[in-house]
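User: I've been going back and forth on whether these two constructs are worth ordering. Before I decide, could you fold them both?

Assistant: Sure. I'll take them in the order you sent them. The first construct and its structure tokens:
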Amino acid sequence: MSESTPTATVSNEAPAPEKFPTRVFLTGATGFVGRAVLRELIAKGHQVVCLARDRQRLGKILSEAPAGRIETVKGDLFDSAVADGVKGADAVVHLVGIIVESKLRGQTFRRVHVEGTQRVIEAAQAAGVKRYVHMSALGTRPNAVSEYHRTKWAAENIVRASGLDWTIFRPSLIHGPGGEFMNMMKTFVCDAAVPVLGFIPAPFPVIPYFGSGEAKLQPVSVKDVAHCFAAAVSSPETIGKVLELGGPQTCTWKEFYKICQELIPCAKPWKRLAGVPVPVAKVLAHTFMRLPLLPKALRYDVGQVIMSQEDSVCDARPAEEAFGIKMRDFRTELAAYAEQIGQ
């Protein structure tokens, strides 16, 4: 972060006595964003109950947190664990979402985004929990071109109609050293070959993008996202608001890739950007990408192709003003954590 940009993380500030301790039920705690939100909630003085199929995926957070500040309930959105976890909570933070469907595992956008949100809302209502903070996505709207955004919109409507004291966040692309997307970027810019069928090396001489690569995005730091979610729990002034989250830097996909190639230490300067025409990318999504040939992190679906052709930009000033922060610059943040990607 530049010296002129104040930090968004104020975790060391003493919590207001009248608002703490607060017991928060958190879904998605073992994910990239979830781990950051969990850390921020703990730093702000909350006690957190995490919904998790595997407690060990919380990693170092369990050992670093003060005793008694983290509890876990084993399960997922579609069993009794949600109702068990929300009992006695003062607030619910719902983060669970998927980017790619896995129909064989029952993970469709409608089931996870819509039905999952409905389950969490009903559990909160039954337990008498009023405060609810929800993860949506920038670009969510009725009649969106992608099923991802359409189901996110349907979930938002469930939240709005719930009667709870809700806040909805819509972030642009979230970046940070522990995220799958930045791990993929490291592969794109650093690897001269990738494994096919898990072990056969295949040349990977280019950095691919979809279409023209001119659609715009506003990468937002996972630190800022975590700060906003954790702060919203105790910010009644954000009740009933939909807040969009994006960093101060707007760039095209091609510019984003070039920044990654410039700043990630192992990047191959000779690798060139290569656009994959959208029709070709869609055909590949329906065929080659459905086969277990490439590593999972490099596979994509049609929805991701479609979404990459839309701008993912916003006015982040309402969120900055609500929480008294300034969003971190992508280039500055990436330079600070680039060596940690993939570790």
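The second construct, handled the same way:
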Amino acid sequence: MDTDLLSDTFVDLADTMVADFDVIDFLHLLTDRTVRLLGAAAAGVVLADPRGELRVAAASSEEAGLVELFQLQNDQGPCLDCFRTERPVTANDLTGPDQRWPRFAQAATRAGFRTVEAVPMRLRDQIIGALNLFGAEPGTFTAADLRIAQALADVATIGLLHERNVRRSETVAEQLQAALNSRVMIEQAKGKLAERYDVDMERAFAMLRDHARNTNQHLTDVARDFVTGGTAEFPPARRQPLR
């Protein structure tokens, strides 16, 4: 494991008190670093809305995002059980017999995933969602990997709750709703950008994120501007689809 990347990740996840803090970018940082550190095929984050219902907040790949959405729509899967029990949930081999979540297992294996580990995002008695790791092979993750995954989820949760409690007077639920609404705007921008430049959805998201960072803007603001007819131009090199 890259120990320098691990230490940098904990610092980045704890540093939520910056003036330009962006929740969606923060959650994508969490999923991207989880994949890199633990060798996961993909990772996703689901968060609870004000009614306590889970919604997809971030995913490291389109496939993972769709699988997360599938389990929420079908009300079965490890992330749901993790959130409801507030305990880690393991699915070691989704192709094995007697699956606990048969519809989810079929959808996940079609997407190329055979292992799922779900860890709760909680602080004491408050749970806000779950961090989910997807593996391409059975038994992908070790006990040490899962301890690190839980530590990443814990630090991210503390950072999110601390930032909201200190910076704003709104409730945590309202902040989570704002983050989930931002994701909807970003998904719309991804689709529009993908169609305009003939790229796939992952490249479209990378273009949005790069443009936000290069112009020192929030990711959500860039997405909103593009969806509502803004004139943002993206570098020609970014217009080519992923190989």
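Notes on the second construct follow. Residues 236-243 have pLDDT under 50 and may be disordered. The first strand starts at residue 42 and ends at 48.
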